[in-house]
């Protein structure tokens, strides 16, 4: 089986390569090999390599910057998936489109099921929702899997975990508190969990819309506190900062974010045969992997 992954240099792309099954012929494409803002290049990559699957892991993920760069975000997050899907419709392959909890508005206060309608708030969420739609319009349903996830982090790249580890050390040394938003609720997802789900989709030829995150629920404040606790217990940090909860209004950002974006992953875990791992357990495993 031949699988092409995009965003190969990103945190999910690197984990997908690490977990790649031996039976898979992997074509790992980073930005240098494939510019996702170039739809023609996306189509050409499929037409040239004719993969059995494309795992569309690359994305424009700078949520706040997207408000100032909506056209670029749309090309990467919406037009690229559409281009992959259109090319795969001709070559016979399938698409795994990695999407996000930001396609929901966060107003309902209960975990979102895969079959619920989307209603994104900002440019990032809108472009990711548009990417789902573009792929669905171009590719037969039995050859498309949309896998939504949330709050992704891992041992490499740029993410909340690595940022908080640095800030804990800096703030603790300065005797200053670390102020983190406490009124946005979702669930952290390790790249290990997400990559495992991606490869399960490919191995089983799954289709439809699925949700994947680690188990449990947290605010960003909860996540920051846990990072400090686990990192200190493991010897990663000698001291940690006091974390103070703040509101979204206390920390205004260009992009609006859903206040509640927990995903209901029960059907996906059952369908793909995946076990539920609490986010704190997953976090401890990732911290153990850090260099």
Describe this structure in words.
The chain has 291 residues and is an alpha/beta fold. It has a domain at 2-150 and 190-215 and 262-276: Rossmann fold. It has nine helices and twelve strands. The strands form four sheets. A six-stranded parallel sheet has the order 2-1-3-4-5-10, with helices on both faces. Strand 1 (2-6), helix 1 (11-18) and strand 2 form a beta-alpha-beta unit. The radius of gyration is 19 Å and the shape is globular. The mean pLDDT is 97.
Please tag this protein with its features.
291 residues; alpha/beta; Rossmann fold; six-stranded parallel β-sheet; two-stranded parallel sheet; 12 strands; 41% helix
Report on the biggest sheet. Answer: 6 strands, parallel
Number of E strands: 12
CATH topology of the domain at 2-150 and 190-215 and 262-276: Rossmann fold
**Unreliable stretches:** none
Strand content: 15-25%
CATH architecture of the domain at 2-150 and 190-215 and 262-276: 3-Layer(aba) Sandwich
Q: For this structure, what is the CATH homologous superfamily of the domain at 2-150 and 190-215 and 262-276?
A: NAD(P)-binding Rossmann-like Domain
Mean pLDDT comes to 97
């Amino acid at each position: 089986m031949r699988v092409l992954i995009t965003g190969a240099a990103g945190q999910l792309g690197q984990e997908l390569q690490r977990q790649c099954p031996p039976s898979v012929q992997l074509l790992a494409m980073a930005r240098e090999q494939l510019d996702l803002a170039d739809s023609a290049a996306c189509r050409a990559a499929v037409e040239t390599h004719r993969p059995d699957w494309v795992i569309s892991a690359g994305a424009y993920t700078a949520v706040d910057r997207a408000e100032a760069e909506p056209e670029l975000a749309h090309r990467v997050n919406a037009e690229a998936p559409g281009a992959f899907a259109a090319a795969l419709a001709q070559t016979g392959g399938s698409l795994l489109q990695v999407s996000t909890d930001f396609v929901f508005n966060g107003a309902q206060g209960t975990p979102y099921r895969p079959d619920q309608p989307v209603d994104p708030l900002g440019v990032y969420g809108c472009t990711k929702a548009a990417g789902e739609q573009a792929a669905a319009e171009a590719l037969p349903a039995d050859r498309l899997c949309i896998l939504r996830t949330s709050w992704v982090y891992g041992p490499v790249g740029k993410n909340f975990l690595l940022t908080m580890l640095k800030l804990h050390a800096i703030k603790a040394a300065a005797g200053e508190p670390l102020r983190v938003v406490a009124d946005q609720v979702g669930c952290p997802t390790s790249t290990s969990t997400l990559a495992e789900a991606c490869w399960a989709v490919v191995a089983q030829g799954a289709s439809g819309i699925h949700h994947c995150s680690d188990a449990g629920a947290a605010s960003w404040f909860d996540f920051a506190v846990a990072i400090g606790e686990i990192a200190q217990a493991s010897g990663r940090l000698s001291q940690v900062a006091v974390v103070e909860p703040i509101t979204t209004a206390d920390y205004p950002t260009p992009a609006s974010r859903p206040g509640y974006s927990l995903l209901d992953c029960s059907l996906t875990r059952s369908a793909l045969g995946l076990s539920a791992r609490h986010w704190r357990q997953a976090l401890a495993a990732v911290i153990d992997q850090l260099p």
